[in-house]
Amino acid sequence: MGKLFDIVKIFLFAVIIVIPIHAFLIQPYIVSDNIMAPQYSKGDIVLVSRIPYFSNEFQRNDIIVFRDSVNRKEKHISKIIGMPYERVTVNDGILMIKSNESIIYKQDLALFGTTVASLEDLGNLDEHEFYILGNKWIEGVSGIIDSRFIIGKPVITIFKAK
Fold first, then answer.
1. Quick check: helix, strand or coil at residue 135?
2. Domain spans of the chain, in order of start
3. Per the UniProt record, which residue ranges are transmembrane (predicted)?
4. Which long-range contacts (CB under 8 A, 24 or more apart) does 96-101 make?
5. What was the pLDDT predicted at 146?
């Protein structure tokens, strides 16, 4: 009877304490690629705060962890460079983020070793969209993301792979 009671206590502890903390406060994440190297490299383990997700407090240059929009089991890490209502254009390989026609952010995509259409206007981001870009260009991990796919912000690295 004593062992059964101990098992029930452990189960209740998990349900009452651990699961809500994991769902609403903090989650571990293993970095799956080198898009944010050298800050975060493949194999690093970081703790991700969920609080910014619930408070919707994101700013330009925040590093975020997010779910892939196609394969929701995959998670990635990247940096926010474009905010809601800003305009994203690519002209001659130069990515520009504009607000009220003034340039807020400018990046030569050739630095990432990629070639992009000479003129591409991705339009204005809507109220729930951000434009993300890592320290390296990886298609599918760089681009427009809906805020509902954002998990949170990394707050501490608990293991460095290299």
1. coil
2. 2-159
3. 7-30
4. 97/131
5. 93
